[in-house]
Write a structure and sequence with these properties.
Blueprint lengths: L1 H9 L4 E6 L5 H13 L2 E6 L19 H10 L4 E3 L3 H4 L18 H4 L3 H16 L3 E5 L3 H13 L5 E5 L19 H7 L1 H14 L5 H4 L2 E2 H10 L5 E9 L8 E2 L4 E10 L2 E10 L2
Parallel strand pairs: 1-2, 1-4, 2-3, 4-5
Antiparallel strand pairs: 6-8, 7-9, 9-10
Helix pairs in contact: 6-7, 9-11
């Protein structure tokens, strides 16, 4: 892989990169398509990273189907697939990891200790292998995109990070490899995440009284709206936070961007979703 991209860079070929854990769906297809429109060489990695799974999480059962992944990559403009084994990525004696504080400590980081260290370590190694000009991530994993941006900035990596909007099913459910775990009833209940996000977004963007008269929009008012729409799933968190820092504040004001983030279980399947909006 390094030989291929080194030759390409020597010829001044820009490289687009889409890191994935496989079991590709329409969201991944969009990332590959966007990259292929911007770069003549698009590398897609397929690697289920053991470092980002907790001991009670689904590493062993995470869906894997490399043959169908390769077909999708080819069909949507990908030019190269990098699909290493765990032994290749983490050979015996591997002892280095990337730790990111600050933004990685919130939400997913608080509930899944070590998760973002595993994400940052594998993304750093993939970046060093593929040497991309630009890397593409989906907004569905919103906090992950902020963590990757933090790492790239802190370590002065010459890589542009492009966050592509979440791709959804017709009923609003965010596309995810883990949707394959859902039975019919759970699949229907899972749509409540998008309904809750949409309800809160519409409330923020269409306040009955102008915010100038209200002076501030209370965070708890937004979060209560989301909670009320999430009766069909088991909620881990449903929060309205500063979109840049993920910090929770009592009140929000005109012109501020808010990230609405939800993590919830439909049956045994953990799902996440988000919408970013702005107070006018």
């Amino acid at each position: 892989m390094q030989d291929i991209v080194s030759d390409a860079r020597a010829e001044r070929v820009d490289i687009g990169f889409v890191p994935t854990m496989g079991s590709l769906h329409g969201g991944h297809a969009e990332l590959i398509k966007v990259s292929s429109m911007r770069h003549s060489l698009t590398v897609v990695s397929v690697f289920v990273n053991p470092l980002q799974f907790g001991p009670s999480e689904d590493f062993g059962t995470y869906p894997r189907n490399l043959d169908s992944d390769v077909r999708m990559i080819r069909e949507h403009g990908g030019t190269h697939v990098f699909a290493p084994s765990a032994e290749e990525m983490y050979p015996q004696g591997f002892a280095t990891s990337i730790h990111i504080g600050g933004i990685a400590k919130e939400l997913e980081g608080a509930g899944r200790p070590g998760h973002f260290d595993g994400v940052a370590t594998v993304v750093c190694k993939l970046f060093n292998t593929v040497m991309p000009t630009e890397a593409f991530f989906g907004q569905k994993d919103y906090q992950q995109t902020l963590v990757v941006k933090q790492m790239v900035a802190d370590l002065a990596m010459p890589i542009a990070i492009n966050v592509v909007p979440t791709v959804r099913e017709a009923d609003g459910l965010a596309m995810s490899s883990r949707n394959a775990y859902l039975n019919f009833e759970e699949r229907n209940r899972a749509t409540s995440l998008f309904r809750a996000l949409t309800r809160a977004k519409e409330f923020i963007e269409n306040l009955e009284a102008p915010l100038q008269k209200r002076k501030a929009l209370p965070r708890l008012e937004i979060e209560a709206l989301m909670q009320a729409a999430l009766q069909e799933v088991s909620v881990e968190y449903a929060v309205a936070v500063d979109a840049a820092t993920l910090q929770s504040r009592d009140n929000y004001f005109s012109g501020e961007k808010i990230a609405l983030l939800i993590a919830a279980f439909a049956g045994r399947t953990r799902l996440i979703d988000n919408i970013v909006t702005e107070i006018v």
